[in-house]
Each structure stands twice: as C-alpha cells, then as structure tokens.
Request: fold
Amino acid sequence: MNILICGIKFVGGFILLSKVLFYFSQIMKNNTLILNENSQLLSQVLAKKIKKGFVVEEINNKLPFVVLSKKPTKVNHNLNFWISCATFGLWSIPWIYKSYKSKREKKIIIAIDEDGAVFEEECYN
Reply:
C-alpha cells in the first residue's frame, strides 16, 4: 500500500512538474517575443541614427545596447561672417553656438530598458 501511495505521489509530482515546465516554456516564449519586438524597435532607431551620419562603435546583444559616434562637422566661417555682417551682428549668436557644438565628437548610447522601451542617452567624455 505504501508503494502505491508513493507511486501516486510521484505521478502527482510529475504532473505538477510538467505543468510548471509548461508554464515556464510559455513565459520564455513570451519573453523571446518581447525581446524580438524590442530588438526590432532598437534596430529601427539604430537605422535612423545611421542615416543621420552616426557610426556604430560597440554593440552588445546580451544587454541590448549600441554605442554610436558622430565626427565633428566643419563650420563655414566665411559664410557665417558675411551673414553676420548682413544682419548687423545678430547672426553671431547662432554662429558661436554652432561653432561650439560642432567641434566635439558626439557619442550616444541607444538601449532597451527594463520595461522594454528604447531610450537614447548622450555619453559624456
């Protein structure tokens, strides 16, 4: 009689274990679906940034993030000088701002947070 009870407990435990494994496999399928959707969003944002002139420096697929950089742009100082003269010096404010912003290399990181949303942040040197 004890053997039969142990057999029933084992079978019951096996059924319980199989249900747990089934639910776990469903959760894993849902997580991979979410990861695939999020990685598609990440790749869409990445494609937009590459079109704007950014270059990929580092990719990490385990913790999904990408580090991008953009080389400094050149400012046409001759043109800005003449525009500034034509506007009686008013153009000098945007000219100074443009010169300040363009002389540094820009680095950004694009990643997926815990909620599955894609975010972008500027890296500081």
User: Anything to note?
Assistant: Helices lie at 2-51, 77-86, 92-102. Residues 1-34 have pLDDT under 50 and may be disordered. The beta strands are 55-60, 65-70, 106-112, 118-122. The two ends are 74 Å apart (CA to CA).
